[in-house]
Design goal:
The structure holds 2 protein chains of 2 kinds.
Chain A lengths: L4 E12 L2 E12 L3 E5 L6 H8 L7 E6 L2 E2 L4 H7 E4 L11 H11 L4 H15 L14 H12 L6 E5 L7 H16 L3 E6 L10 E6 L2 E6 L1 H7 L3 E6 L3 H9 L6 E5 L2 E6 L2 H14 L6 E5 L3 H21 L1
Parallel strand pairs in A: 3-8, 3-9, 6-7, 7-8
Antiparallel strand pairs in A: 1-2, 1-4, 4-5, 9-10, 11-13, 11-14, 12-13
Chain B lengths: L1 H17 L1 H21 L7 E7 L4 H12 L3 E7 L2 H9 L5 E5 L3 H7 L5 E5 L4 H23 L29 H32 L1 H6 L5 H29 L9 H25 L3 H17 L12 H7 L3 H15 L3 H25 L6
Parallel strand pairs in B: 1-2, 1-3
Antiparallel strand pairs in B: 3-4
Classes of the chains: A alpha/beta, B alpha/beta.
Chain lengths: 318, 375
């Protein structure tokens, strides 16, 4: 197994008929990293992760996972990875313990390790006193931790998580990311997809994907500096009215609601602050505050997608 | 490898036994079908509703009617003096057959003239109508032979012995009870439905809830997955064969003349085909509903074109060719012959061979289609 990269792919492409779900994606994940794969629903995240796990054969491209070829050695790869799909995928009608025993057997965990692994999963998921309950009766957060536990019973060096936190309450999501961080600390490489932009902060390395194409990659802090524009946070009494006015004013490139404030994308923060202030004052909608803020991951993402769209339309015209 | 298959087996049994609907499908449905076919579905014709119009009112006419009722095939539901009444009763469906004996019947018999009686049969149900007419004919013939043969009237009548007399005897099922024919058939049909449905549904259910995807990223091998998903239903089907056979023998007194071991061997070969088809259906269905629809799409024609209820020899020729592809056709011959005729390997080997070929082909084809990938 290659010591440096747990996952390494070049020009990975998957077509379904005429539709290109994943378009020439290249990426590499260092061993021991938490790698975040970000993008909206339908961007191609699940398709990519399924190709890496050997569930789907790529239409073209090449790559290695855990040092094995994804085109020819997918069955070997399966012995070295753990995978947790988007859908909750344990047996609802089996008890917690029966689910663990089942996957222990399927993964061929050595007999002497079984007890220890089972106790570890029960402890990690906080299910020690619920081991005889039917999985169906567990709340979302517990189910999800049990699913994670069952996916790592065989202690795989690489863990693939496809939207692990969708449909789980914020507290459980927080706990879940703590678990991921612990595993990474012990040397497990974690490849995780999500459409929650704020979860990007938990990752060591990020890749942004939209409509099947990778639009940016880097560390979270780096990515925030890649957008050339500035972000203004505008506080006003009537955000909806102001949103409409600003959209048609030509003063900002992009404006969106952000909680009870507005975030506007502008060329230059200094000039825009005055211009927007005057514009709003002139319409009797004076802002209570306009400040430049650090872009959030969501700002970065929106702005990068815009940029990419502009590039591809320009490309089509020439 | 055995570890994984064993785990799959245990899991599958826990799931089946924990689900009340599954349990009902496996253990209650076969018994209900057996009782239905044992009691309700009978092609035997007896207690035919009979209306009588005896205009002669002689000891001879009464003796003839007595013959009809004593046979057990006819039950007199109405006696009338008006011949038109027979037609009315037939119209209303209150009688299936009307018998009219005209005035002068006894006279004709005594004087050696040909005596005539008239029967009218409701032919709506062609099967019952034909059988009723046939019985009436036979009873009348026997009556006339008894009257005219030895004894009182022989000096008047010329000897009316027929040149050829047919004496038939039914072998294997001497009383021609349709139950003896149906009960073994039910076993074959029940096993088909259960093994087909359970296999197709169990795999598609896992695909629907997402556990199939989870299994596919584990190191489990394709054949382990297939064995793990089919062996439990093979075992359950065998249990059903034994349960239904036991009830058939002990409750319905269906005799079993042949070897039970040979029957179970045949059932094993038969299950290869039905499980193979179940597996195939699971590879073309995305949802349990689709699997259910596809299963019945196969099941109904398979039952109709098997000889289960309608003899294959009566079918148009193209339909007869189709039956050669139907595993039920072969197993029906095996199970009925083992039950009723006590046939052995020496006679039934062509059926066994056909099932083995069909089963191997279906299982191989479906297993090849069943891949450890999503698309």
């Amino acid at each position: 197994m290659s010591p440096e990269y747990a996952v390494e792919v070049h020009d990975l492409t998957r077509k379904f008929g005429d539709f290109v779900a994943v378009d020439r994606v290249s990426l590499s994940v260092e061993t021991g990293q938490v790698f975040g794969f970000l993008g909206p629903n339908g961007a191609g995240k699940s398709t990519t992760i399924r190709m890496l796990c050997g569930l789907l054969l790529p239409s073209s491209g090449a790559g290695r996972v855990a040092g094995f070829d994804i085109m020819t050695e997918s069955e070997t790869i399966k012995r070295h990875i753990g995978y947790m799909s988007q859908k909750f995928s344990l047996y609802d009608d089996l008890s917690v313990e029966e689910n663990i025993d089942f996957f222990t057997g399927i993964y061929n965990v050595p007999r002497i390790r079984r007890r220890e692994r089972k106790d570890w999963v029960l402890d990690m998921a906080g299910l020690a006193d619920k081991r005889d309950n039917l999985t169906r009766s567990l709340a979302g957060g517990w189910k999800q931790r049990l699913a994670l536990g069952c996916a790592v019973l065989h202690e795989p060096p690489i863990l693939f998580l496809d939207e692990p936190t969708s449909g789980v309450d914020p507290l459980s999501r927080r706990q879940f990311w703590d678990l991921i961080a612990q595993m990474a600390q012990r040397g497990t490489t974690v490849f995780v997809t999500t459409h929650y932009m704020e979860e990007a902060e938990y990752c060591d390395e990020l890749a942004l994907i939209s409509r099947g194409r990778m639009i940016a990659k880097g560390k979270p802090a780096e990515l925030k500096t890649v957008i050339p524009e500035d972000i203004l946070e505008i506080r006003v009494e009537h955000p909806f009215e102001v949103l409409e006015q600003l959209e048609n004013s030509g003063l900002v490139k992009e404006v969106a609601l952000f909680g009870d404030t507005l975030h506007a994308v502008v060329e230059d923060a200094g000039a825009a602050t005055t211009a927007v202030g005057d514009f709003l004052a002139g319409r009797g909608l004076a802002a209570t505050g306009i400040t430049q803020v650090r872009p959030s991951m969501e700002d970065v993402f929106v702005s990068l997608v815009e940029l990419e769209d502009r590039r591809s339309t320009e490309g089509a015209q020439t | 490898m055995w570890e994984r298959i064993y785990r799959m087996l245990v899991k599958e049994f826990i799931q089946v036994l924990r689900d009340p609907r599954m349990k009902a499908l496996i253990f209650v449905m076969p018994v209900i079908q057996l009782i239905m076919f044992g009691y309700a579905v009978t092609t035997d014709v007896d207690h035919i509703k009979t209306a009588v119009c005896d205009l002669d009112k002689s000891p001879q006419s009464r003796a003839l009617i007595e013959r009809f009722t004593a046979s057990g095939y006819f039950t007199v539901v109405d006696s009338t003096d008006r011949p038109e009444r027979l037609g009315e009763l037939l119209d209303r469906g209150q009688a299936t057959i009307g018998i009219q004996i005209n005035h002068g019947f006894a006279e004709d018999l005594k004087s050696g003239r040909q005596a005539a009686i008239q029967t009218i049969v409701d032919g709506t149900d062609s099967n019952t109508g034909t059988v009723a007419m046939d019985y009436a004919q036979r009873i009348t013939q026997e009556f006339s032979r008894a009257r005219v043969g030895p004894g009182e009237l022989d000096q008047l009548a010329p000897p009316q012995t027929e040149p050829i007399e047919l004496r038939s005897r039914a072998w294997f099922n001497p009383d021609l009870k349709s139950r003896y024919f149906n009960v073994p058939g039910v076993i074959a049909v029940v096993v088909l439905l259960i093994s087909l449905l359970l296999t197709a549904m169990a795999i598609v259910r896992e695909r629907e809830i997402g556990t199939m995807e989870q299994l596919m990223v584990t190191p489990i091998r394709s054949f382990e997955l297939i064995l793990g998903k089919t062996l439990p239903f093979v075992l359950i089907s065998f249990i059903d064969v034994l349960v239904v056979t036991a009830i058939g023998i002990s409750w319905f007194n269906v005799p079993i003349h042949g070897s039970l071991a040979l029957l179970l061997f045949g059932a094993g070969l038969y299950l290869m085909s039905t499980i193979g088809i179940g597996l195939f259906i699971s590879t073309i269905s995305q949802t349990q509903q689709q699997a259910l629809m596809s299963s019945f799409f196969f099941y109904l024609p398979a039952v109709l074109l098997s000889g289960f209820m309608f003899p294959i020899s009566n079918m148009p020729e193209p339909a007869q060719w189709l039956t050669y592809l139907n595993p039920l056709r072969y197993f029906l011959v095996i199970i009925r012959d083992i039950f009723l005729k006590g046939s052995g390997w020496d006679i039934l080997w062509p059926q066994f061979a056909a099932l083995a070929v069909l089963g191997t082909a279906l299982l191989t084809m479906s297993s090849l289609r069943f891949k450890k990938r999503m698309a």
